[in-house]
Predict the 3D structure of the following.
Amino acid sequence: MKDDAIVFKGTKEGLYIVLKEEMIFDDIVHELENKIKPSKRFFEGAKIVNFKGKSLTPGEYEELVDILQNQYGMQFLGDYESLCRNDVFPKEDQKDQPIPEPVKQPLGDEEKALFIKGTIRSGQLIKFDGNIVVLGDVNPGAYLEATGSIIVMGNMRGTAHSGTQGDYSTYIAAYKMEPMQLRIGDIINRPPDEKKYKSEVPEMAVVKQGMIIVEPYLVKK
């Protein structure tokens, strides 16, 4: 089975599950298990807007919804009528990129992390329940939102919000820090209009005494 036989696409409302038209139903069930089971913790609580692509019978539709909700703890928002109308994708979401696959974590209490390889472009929104690591640049107009910390292994020129659930111990680090806005918890730090952050060394934004402070990531000894 090809890796793109089932694709998860992210939108503002939640995830769509895109099914290849030529797939038989048993293969769909098997491939869903292969996709979701290894990363079950990541998908728990995820909002599924609807399916897209393949036509399903009412019985097949209900069986898939039951699997997603009862076996994997997802929230299903769609209905069979929307699938039949084939209009579950809003036009503005047609060009959304497939949602990045989560990093598979070992057993234990280690934190979850989402690794993204490539540039996060203007207009893209990446949200994750855990840490986000970008192996590339974050362009102006792009937005990162994480309940944990955010690390950008390139130019950070967009907006980053760590600790979205109020965790002020999180941080935002970048190889080159030139953000539009930084936010940790509900504390916001935006550079003045006439000046952006400029640095030749990697930097990290942390909360100290109720304020966001940007300092060198590696302190000289």
